[in-house]
Design goal:
Elements (H helix, E strand, L loop, with lengths): L2 E2 L12 H10 L5 H22 L4 E3 L7 H8 L16 H9 L1 E2 H6 L6 E2 L4 E3 L6 E3 L2 E2 L11 H11 L4 E6 L1 H6 L2 E2 L10 H18 L3 E5 L9 H13 L7 E5 L9 H6 L4 E5 L7 H7 L5 E7 L9 H15 L4 E5 L27 H17 L5 H16 L6 H8 L12 H12 L16 H12 L4 H22 L16 H4 L3 E4 L6 E4 L2 E3 L3 E7 L6 H9 L6 E5 L1 H6 L2 E2 L5 H21 L4 E5 L14 H16 L7 E6 L8 H7 L3 E4 L8 H8 L4 E4 L12 H12 L20 H26 L1
Parallel strand pairs: 1-14, 2-8, 7-9, 8-10, 10-11, 11-12, 12-13, 13-14, 18-20, 19-21, 21-22, 22-23, 23-24
Antiparallel strand pairs: 3-4, 5-6, 15-18, 16-17
Helix pairs in contact: 1-2, 6-8, 12-13, 17-18, 22-23, 23-24, 26-27
EC number: 2.1.1.14
Pfam families: Meth_synt_1, Meth_synt_2
Keywords: Amino-acid biosynthesis, Metal-binding, Methionine biosynthesis, Methyltransferase, Repeat, Transferase, Zinc
């Protein structure tokens, strides 16, 4: 009989219990035992929800205290030498040190000498806003089974009477997603050292009773070299046989295309395909599927919150069942449900018109079971569910809230001139420098400053209605004034207002733009304990009123130094929202860009000399296949310029990008024509700048000199060394000095010394360069 399967469930808990437990452990408020107990309770709840929904194959080991790739690093003992780990198993402090780095006092407590350890690099998980920790590999790399987490969690569920399907990141994707610390070394050369560890794990799982193991190989949807294809063939030949459980090869985020025959030929029990992103791959899969394979169909969107078109999904499902029979077809989500909020029922105040259009993780489980029952029992058994889905979709398509004729008319009237600055960069940068009067190597930050507990309490009180708007806004003004004063005392050259009025860089704008809806509890994990509430973008976008003007102009009145106006860019507002699926993404992004263009114009008219339009999601939106990238980059660049190019040449436009591989989009980054770009570079030791050097990036750059996602405070000498590396690539006249990213998640006790060190490092180099500069 057909089965309903799930690939993964959100980890964080309905009330973000995991976040509070992990952060409590870091702060010393919770013991290791308390942290593990919270994790155990969450896993039990999630397994029981899936069991109650009627899911036939429930995943285990999809849970993580921080990141599933980090779990795999720990699993195979791939801990970099700098963390001082000697085994036999990876302990919790080593685990979190890889994620966050470690300061001197933390090292001393563990008996390790040193001034601090930088964490692993972090980058985007394919084209999502989830960040994973990047494995580091070298030619002498060894592996061993250094964690029993997949086995432990399988047995934990079994003790509850719940049979699960353990989830493991596949060995080839694990190597492909890592980085070599030795130039020119291919991590795939380590495959034969890695496979025995996977083999040992699989044998233990089978001995414990696991019949199936889900082995995720998402890299199969990428452009692969022949070497990588051969690695897949070799890996699964080694991992097949009577000693091992049946393997479910899981792919997602796109079509396998030329890799489809490879995936279907591997000796596994079942192959999972993402038919939400790539429904066109069903027909060739049905034609090529070996007779002993099962096909798992990803028919419910694991990346977005719109209710499934059950009729369209059922048509694909029935097509597969007709070709293969019920016993060779499973129905599941397109990918893990970790990318969507947990439960629509946690949104009591959701707009009643929009609510029927949506499905969160628990509702998506119900959709999977509905599709299963449709095949098993016939349409009459699920008539009520089918009719509700049809009605919701019809009402959504007919809703006047989707369409704003004025927005569409304005978009139709845009001209090419709206996406061009008047003067080329060298000429306008000279005008900007004259206006701003900044020193060589100007220092600044990215935008946000620590969101203190008092600030969060005031914001919560205001939203509850227990604090008046007047009192709340007076508090925000006082916070901004204090933040400006702190920056002046530190010695920064270009200041920011600190963003105390913003709980999130996307949510803040979504709350003020027409066409967006912001949830109360729609949390998803971005990285580690960082959770965000992606807005739901359901209709045409417009800006009813200025969004940042009051706070930026107030901050500028508090100082004689320039204050940057900080906006979130159109691509990032698009990418970090649950985007409407009833029109091309490019059209939606252009609507956002026009709304931001109005905000930029208001800031400039108010005398703000520097406006930063952050685009950390530019690289994230890049299609996974190379041939599809030029079209995306063309409209993404157009949208940024549509938002930014309405200013005078004397107004300086900044942008910020972080935690992504930029090497293959440098032409597009240059085409944005931002006067200054700030980028994440500290975790990679400025390696990223090699690509900027080879490309000869023409505008000004601020490579991050310290990693803000770690509590570690780098020394002056460390930052100075990074800046010296940057100066080997970037002329001093075009080099800015800043952290990697915004500082909202850090504490003032970490931020102030780190920024003082940064300013000192910049001043030291400035003194050495001054004779040359003059």
């Amino acid at each position: 009989m057909i089965q309903a399967v799930n690939l993964g469930f959100p980890r964080i808990g309905l009330g973000r219990e995991l976040k509070w437990a992990v952060e409590g452990y870091w702060a010393g408020r919770h013991t290791e035992a308390q942290l593990y107990e919270t994790a155990r309770q969450l896993r039990m709840q999630h397994w029981q929800w899936q069991q109650q929904a009627g899911i036939d194959q429930i995943p285990s080991n999809d849970f993580s205290l921080y990141d599933h790739v980090l779990d795999t690093i720990a699993l195979v003992g791939a801990v970099p030498q700098r963390f001082g780990w000697h085994g036999p198993s990876v302990d919790l402090d080593t685990y979190f040190a890889m994620a966050r780095g470690a300061q001197e006092k933390e090292l001393a407590a563990r008996g390790v000498e040193g001034t601090g350890i930088p964490p692993l690099e972090m980058t985007k998980w394919f084209d999502t806003n989830y960040h994973y920790l990047v494995p580091e590999f070298h030619p002498e790399q060894t592996f061993r089974l250094a964690s029993t987490k997949p086995l432990d969690e399988y047995l934990e569920a079994k003790a509850l009477g719940i049979e699960t399907r353990p989830v493991v990141l596949g060995p080839v994707s694990f190597l492909l997603l890592g980085k070599s610390v030795v130039p020119g070394f291919d991590p795939l050369a380590l495959l034969d050292r890695l496979l025995p560890v996977y083999a040992e794990l699989l044998r233990r799982l089978k001995a414990a009773g696991a019949q199936l193991v889900q082995i995720d190989e998402p890299c199969l949807v990428l452009d692969l070299s022949e070497n990588a294809r051969n690695a897949y063939r070799h890996a699964y030949e080694v991992l097949s046989g009577a000693d091992f459980p049946g393997l479910v090869l899981t792919t997602y985020f796109g079509a396998l295309e030329e890799n489809l025959p490879l995936a279907l030929s591997l000796p596994v029990v079942a192959v999972h395909l993402d038919l939400v992103r790539a429904p066109e791959q069903l027909q060739p899969a049905l034609a090529q599927l070996p007779p002993d394979r099962i096909l798992s169909l990803g028919l419910v969107d694991g990346r977005n919150v719109w209710r499934t078109d059950l009729d369209a999904a059922a048509a694909l499902l029935q097509q597969a069942v007709a070709a293969l029979g019920q016993d060779r077809v499973w129905v599941g989500p397109s990918c893990s449900l970790m990318h969507v909020p947990i439960d629509l029922e946690a949104e009591p105040d959701l707009d009643p018109e929009i609510r029927p259009w949506l499905a969160f993780a628990r509702q998506k489980l119900d959709e999977l079971v509905t599709l299963k029952r449709l095949v098993r029992e016939g349409p009459h058994a699920v008539r009520q569910q089918l009719e509700a889905a049809r009605q919701a979709r019809a009402e959504r398509m007919a809703s006047p809230r989707r369409i704003n004729p004025a927005v569409r008319q304005r978009l139709a009237q845009r001209t090419p001139e709206m996406t061009c600055r008047k003067l080329p960069f060298p000429e306008r940068y000279t005008l900007q420098c004259q206006r701003l009067g900044l020193p060589l190597l100007p220092t600044t930050t990215i935008g946000s400053f620590p969101q203190t507990e008092e600030l969060r309490q005031k914001r919560a009180a205001f939203r509850r209605g227990t604090l008046s708007r007047q009192a709340y806004e007076q508090f925000l003004e006082a916070t901004i004034a204090e933040t400006i004063a702190r920056q002046e005392a530190i010695g920064l050259d270009v200041l920011v207002h600190g963003e105390p009025e913003r709980s999130d860089m996307v949510e803040y704008f979504a709350e003020q733009l027409e066409g967006f809806w912001v949830t109360q509890n729609g949390w998803v994990q971005s990285y580690g304990t960082r959770c965000v509430r992606p807005p739901i973008l359901y209709g045409d976008v417009s800006r009813p009123a200025p969004m940042t003007l009051r706070w930026i102009t107030y901050a500028q009145r508090c100082t004689a130094r320039p204050v940057k106006g900080i906006l979130t860019g159109p691509i990032t507002l698009l990418q970090w929202s649950f985007v409407r699926d009833d029109q091309p993404r490019a059209e939606t992004c252009r609507q956002i860009a026009l709304a931001l263009r109005d905000e930029v114009a208001d800031l400039e008219a108010a005398g703000i000399a520097i406006i930063q339009i952050d685009e950390p999601a530019l690289r994230e939106g890049l299609p996974l296949r190379r041939r599809d990238r030029p079209a995306y980059l063309a409209w993404a660049v157009e949208c940024f310029r549509l938002a930014s190019c309405g200013v005078r040449d004397q107004t300086q436009i900044h942008t910020h990008m972080c935690y992504a591989d930029f090497e293959d989009i440098l032409e597009a980054i240059a085409a944005l024509d931002a006067d200054v770009i700030s980028i994440e570079a500290a975790r990679s030791g400025m390696q990223l700048l090699e690509a900027f050097q080879q490309f000869a990036y023409p505008n000004a750059i601020g490579p991050g000199v310290y990693d803000i996602h770690s509590p570690r405070v780098p020394s002056v000498e460390e930052m100075e060394g990074l800046l010296e590396r940057a100066l080997a690539t970037i002329p001093a006249q075009r080099l800015w000095v800043n952290p990697d990213c915004g500082l909202k998640t850090r504490r003032w006790a970490e931020v102030e010394p780190a920024l003082r060190h940064m300013v000192t490092a910049a001043r030291r180099l400035r003194q050495r360069l001054n004779p040359l500069a003059s």
